[in-house]
Amino acid sequence: MTIDNSQRTNRTALVTGGSRGLGLALARQLAGHGWTLVIDARGAIALAAARAELAQLTQVIAVPGDVVDATHRQALADAAATVGGLDAVINNASILGPSPQPALLDYPLDTLEQVYHTNVIAPLALIQAVRHHLRPGATIINITSDAGVEPYAGWGGYGSSKAALEHLSAILAEENPELKVYWVDPGDMRTQMHQEAFPGEDISDRPLPEESVPGLLLLLEGQYPSGRYAARELIEEESS
Questions:
Q1: Does residue 92 contact residue 17 with C-beta atoms inside 8 Å?
Q2: Which residue from 31, 88, 161, 228 has the fewest beta carbons nearer than 10 Å?
Q3: DSSP per position, 61-89
Q4: Strand duo 180-185 + 12-15: pairing
């Protein structure tokens, strides 16, 4: 996407999982559009590298840690206060679960609990943590998946967690009409997580996450009603 300097803004976004994949691709575009960024990731080294890159374009606060940790979420809320509030929260961080993924009857329940904690509970907990730092009309984007609506065999843990996140997002939107709440399917992407879902397979035919980012930017910088969107379909609709 070509960056139009006339679209530059002083808005601020919190992006979880911002050191690689879709999170980093989105952070790069937001930085180019002048957004101030708060980013996090579990890997401190990769996060520091992302921050160094993004800081050449905009103000960035990088907070290493895991979104399932309440202390880390408070650190993100403190960072939000430092930058004067948030215009957007993008809950992108998630985990796949075991690789290869087991059938539900063989799924270790302690691992399933971890998947739900990361993919469902942590996004809501983060929104709760930063709720008093959301600016009027703020946008919430929860990254979901078509596995949350399609019953793919072998995707029971991840898919059901994303289904729960989708319905949670819908209720959040219903309860908070003053916010723009989007639950977004970015589509298949050539990422580390997607590779882990298909161990040993060639996924080079999948689009890079950068191809889904323009759809997210449309939601972040437009006036779409709260709801479920497929990022790449939204791009096609706007270009047709």
A1: yes
A2: 228
A3: EEEES-TT-HHHHHHHHHHHHHTT-EEEE
A4: unpaired
Instruction: Please give the Cα distance from 37 to 134 (Å, whole number).
Output: 14
Sign of the torsion formed by the C-alpha atoms of 44, 110, 191 and 17: negative
pTM: 0.92
pLDDT bracket for residue 158 (50, 70, 90): very high
Indicate the residue type of 34. Answer: G
Considering the candidates 116, 152, 158, 182, report the single residue annotated as catalytic.
158
Mean pLDDT within 13-18? 98
Chain centre to alpha carbon of residue 99:
21
CA atoms within 13 A on the CB side of 40: 27
- Residue 180 in this model has a pLDDT that exceeds 90: yes
Tell me if residue 116 is catalytic.
no
For 36, 123, 225, 230, the CA distances from 120, given in Å and listed in that order, are 26, 6, 22, 19
SS3 54: helix
Using CB atoms within 10 Å of the CB of residue 103, give its burial: 0 to 12 exposed, 13 to 18 middle, 19+ buried.
exposed
* Residue ranges in the chain assigned as alpha helix (H): 21-32, 44-54, 70-82, 109-116, 122-130, 156-175, 192-197, 213-221, 231-239
Q: Is 135 helix (H, G, I), strand (E, B) or coil?
A: strand
